[in-house]
Amino acid sequence: MRTLPVGDRALLIEMADGEQAGALHAELLRRRSAGTLPAVREIVPAARTVLLDGVDDPGRWARELPHWKIPSLQIEEMDVIEVPVRYDGPDLAEVASRWRVAPNEVAEIHSSIDFRVAFCGFAPGFGYLTGLPEDLAVPRRATPRTAVPAGALGLAGSYTGVYPRSSPGGWQLIGRTDLKLWDPAREPAALLSPGARVRLVARR
Amino acid sequence: MTDGAIAVVRAGLLTTVQDLGRPGHAHLGVSRSGALDRRAARLVNRLVGNPESAAVLESTFGGCAIRPRRAVIAAVGGAPCPVLVNGRPVAWGASVRVEAGSLLEAGWATSGVRSYLAFAGGIAVEPVLGSRATDLLSGLGPPPLADGAVLPLGTPTGQRSPVDGTLPWVAPPLELVLRVRLGPRADWFTAAALKALTSGVYRVSAASNRIGLRTEGPALERVRPEELPSEGMVLGAVQVPPDGCPVVFLADHPTTGGYPVVAVVDDRDLGAAAQAAPGTPLRFALLG
């Protein structure tokens, strides 16, 4: 764990990898719901860091955090959000050839993975799902699409994500869902928030 | 409950509804948003007897023209500009009564960039995640104003303005000085780059917007060429994209980013950053 200064009201906590960042994030949420966490406006996990923004005394956090006991992530104990997916995306053949499998095997492989929402970003409700093994990582498209429809399921590197709304995007699209990933009128607005466990359920 | 509305006669270059934003949702990819010059937004609200958090209009450079459908107390502040009611000059930075059907105009900013228009009762569009602010990055909140649009007004509190008279007219500085604290990724840059950042002269770029204040000046060279895995970004972060020219993140900034942040601007200086016109000389001054 390394703590880095971010102005006078925030700090960035850098962990060895995404798994450890996820574990720290889970511990922060546990302490917040137990009422033992000092005031913090934003807790923003990312690839291998957690940002704490809107804190009174970042120096005190930086001194105390290294003494925390942080249990490792227990993904099997978390509630699962199921997202029905039709694996019929325009880049399915491309991904299949990179994985050296037949296109109809992509759904089976991908939907058998236990995903976790590592963090959100890019757009409201866009979750970066981890769980895809490194050897199945695929590069972004050389030329991003100018418009990706809402609900499109894509891969970039070892991340999986669903576009919450239509936007430009460079992820390799392998499927789509009809679920609304983001609805400001709903509580909660985001279907997938950091720390959630996700299963993609293949539909025909 | 609303009791009245305003009609947009001239929307201007870019006029949006703003309040103090929607903090607390960054982990979902939602920027804080809200008025770029929060002090000005608070002041115009006080002039009309609103809570400081009421929604106001933020106009960019060119002002806007508004026709209220009922008599309303209004005030224009932020970037100084001519203020007219039915073509006759009235005071900037003071509360004025605008009769039903009269035309309130905020003219071209004579200095600064963003003028704020408050109406007693506040702009009462439907809040999204607790805020009425337009977030141009996330697409949350009402769309930017368009000619002919009609916006609802809330019920005035009936309280008198706690502000007596008019706002002090603060002349904008000839040079923008942004106080910064180094980090979190200052160690990704050469010693020469850190020296250039804090001693060089930059200029505010015309490509600046509500997402970031872009700069032109000495490019900051990195010692670490690799890609930075996405990490959380704060308001005021000085992010350095591959061209080496620092970008100061403003209210609609992305919540995560993959370019290193060399320093963070002190919160007290962000209002001035929002009012710095393109071409303004800019220095970053090292704090503590």
UniProtKB/TrEMBL annotation, chain A:
Protein name, per record: 5-oxoprolinase subunit PxpB
InterPro entries: CT_C_D, Cyclophilin-like_dom_sf, PxpB
The EC number(s) this enzyme carries: 3.5.2.9
Alphabetically ordered keywords of this record: ATP-binding, Hydrolase, Nucleotide-binding
Presence of keyword ATP-binding: yes
GO MF annotation list: 5-oxoprolinase (ATP-hydrolyzing) activity
Provenance organism: Streptomyces albipurpureus
Organism superkingdom: Bacteria
UniProt cross-references to PANTHER family, sorted A to Z: 5-OXOPROLINASE SUBUNIT B
Stretches assigned to the Carboxyltransferase domain: 1-192
Class of the enzyme per the UniProt entry, highest EC level: hydrolase
The keyword Nucleotide-binding is annotated on this UniProt entry: yes
Gene: pxpB
Automatic annotation (TrEMBL), chain B:
Domain of life: Bacteria
InterPro entries: CT_A_B, Cyclophilin-like_dom_sf, PxpC
Annotated Carboxyltransferase domain residues: 27-288
Name under which the protein is recorded: Biotin-dependent carboxyltransferase family protein
Keywords, ordered alphabetically: ATP-binding, Hydrolase, Nucleotide-binding
Pfam family, one: CT_A_B
Protein source organism: Streptomyces albipurpureus
